[in-house]
């Protein structure tokens, strides 16, 4: 992928981890929290469907750069950190709905927990179903129970992580490089799930800032 971004930006997991924001961490943190709190409070107090539609589709028209600049370096267990992860999950799904739906579907077959039900994707889960799930989770941030939206996103991550691990096991002998990539992706999804679950718990205790 070219390092010369165009909008809408293709923003991979590796780009996410390497992303660098401004030079002043205190200023970045202050702006991140102020914008996240202002946005969420305004929309949730008056969830106009047209406004919610624009927010859900924001990265489709504008790319991820603006959101990354605001929230990517925020503490994972904070409001801006949670919003960043929800937007990033949606973007990753929409960039590769076929691959993501395949990993998610595999995860539903091997995970053995209620996470597929919590995530709420239609079964079987194909590209259309996984894309719809991404939009419904993000809409829930603005219209529904915020903690539930975070828990659904966390469940999606756990199911997909299980799918990544299962496929990696299949490929370990024949495609070790691909297997290693999938194992790394599984670890990222697992970590993101833990962060979103913590954010949901903090939100329920009115402690997510």
Structural class by helix and strand composition:
mainly alpha
The unreliable regions are 1-9, 15-22
The radius of gyration is 17 Å
Ends distance: 35 Å
- Proportion of residues in β-strands: under 5%
Q: Please describe the biggest sheet, giving its number of strands, its sense, and whether it closes into a barrel.
A: none
Q: What is the average of the pLDDT values?
A: 89
Name the shape in a single word.
globular
**Share in helix:** over 70%
* Oligomeric description of these chains: single chain
Fold and architecture overview:
The protein is mostly helical and 209 residues long. The chain contains 11 helices and no strands. The chain has helices at 13-18, 25-45, 49-56, 58-62, 65-71, 79-95, 97-110, 115-119, 127-143, 146-171, 176-204. The longest helix is centred in the last third of the chain and has 29 residues, at 176-204. Mean pLDDT is 89; it is low at 1-9 and 15-22.
Summarize the structure.
With 209 residues, the protein is mainly α.
Please tag this protein with its features.
single chain, 209 residues, mainly alpha, 11 helices, 74% helix, globular, disordered N terminus
Element layout with pairings:
Blueprint: H1 13-18, H2 25-45, H3 49-56, H4 58-62, H5 65-71, H6 79-95, H7 97-110, H8 115-119, H9 127-143, H10 146-171, H11 176-204
